[in-house]
Design brief:
Elements lengths: L5 H14 L8 H16 L7 E5 L9 H7 L2 E6 L2 H10 L8 E5 L10 H5 L4 E7 L1 H10 L8 H21 E15 L15 H11 L8 H10 L5 E3 L3 E5 L2 E11 L3 H14 L7
């Protein structure tokens, strides 16, 4: 099905949220990994400066929202399906928590539908995008009839660049970005269903990357390079883990980057003007 309009994107995401509404238990290991990373990032910020944003919050299966709320000064939850998100808050008994704010916005939309993002620029100490990238990719890919179309490949990489840019612009100087990426599924990597001690998941990941067995645009090393090419000086890739969702297992990792402080940003802007016109990466 082609996904062209904002209404189409809302319908697809609402259907996805309904499909995964009962995945809380299966997502337990994945949720522990994501929650731990969020808590570490929040703890690195000064008390009172722990404003937290979740992009594509969905059913809140990726995050132990109650635990994170105790560590954050406030939490913003963004999703195109804000009605589904509000239902998730009700299921978790968080619908009346004044520390929470729901933001309805379409990450792939036109300037009007992404206006809430523009209003929030430079507001957050920690921004989390968990499994959002592949959802955005699926929406973009649905516009093309031929999965081998080079135009589709270009569009996916452009979507990745735009999403990273969105995250960076939402952060305050010194803020932390956490990008959780599901790289490959058990459909093409069956060893994820019953993983063995050897090879390790890190070795499985590297083997998949070498063989080109990963979702287009999700190569964590390419994403890391894209972050560094943007002017940031540090981007770390976590050890991979398995995210069980639906009938599949997905090899997943987290990229953690931090924006510069105000003096660093001024310095990088000056350097960027001097070096403009250099080589570009994929």
């Amino acid at each position: 099905m082609r996904v062209e309009s904002a209404a189409d994107r809302l319908r697809v995401q609402a259907d996805s949220n309904r499909t995964t509404v009962d995945e809380w238990t299966r997502c337990g290991d994945h949720r522990e990994q994501v929650t731990a990373a969020v808590l570490t990032a929040l703890a690195a910020r000064p008390t009172g400066h722990r404003k937290f944003l979740v992009l594509g919050a969905g059913n809140l299966n990726d995050l132990d929202a109650r635990v994170v709320l105790d560590a954050a000064s406030s939490m913003f939850l963004l999703d195109v399906d804000d009605a589904g998100l509000r239902r998730a808050l009700t299921r978790h008994g968080l619908q009346r928590d004044e520390r929470l704010e729901v933001v309805g916005a379409d990450l792939l939309g036109d300037p009007c539908s992404t206006a809430p993002l523009s209003e929030l620029r430079g507001s957050f100490d920690v921004v989390l995008s968990a499994g959002v990238l592949t959802q955005l990719f699926a929406t973009v890919a649905a516009r093309y009839d031929d999965p081998t179309d080079l135009a589709m490949h270009t569009a996916l990489l452009r979507t990745r660049a735009e999403h990273l840019d969105q995250m960076m612009k939402l952060l305050r100087p010194g803020g932390h970005g956490l990008l959780v990426v599901d790289v490959v599924a058990s459909v093409t990597c069956p060893e994820l269903i019953y993983p063995a001690a050897s090879p390790s998941l890190a070795e499985v990941l590297d083997d998949c990357i070498r063989r080109g067995n990963f979702f287009t645009g999700t190569n964590p090393y390419a994403i890391q390079q894209a972050v560094l090419d943007s002017g940031l000086t540090d981007c770390e890739i976590s050890d991979p883990w398995i995210w069980r969702i639906g009938n599949t297992a997905r090899l997943t990792c987290l990229l953690h980057f931090q924006t510069g402080t105000a003096p660093e940003l001024v310095s990088r802007a000056t350097q960027g003007r001097r070096s403009r016109g250099g080589s570009s990466a994929e």
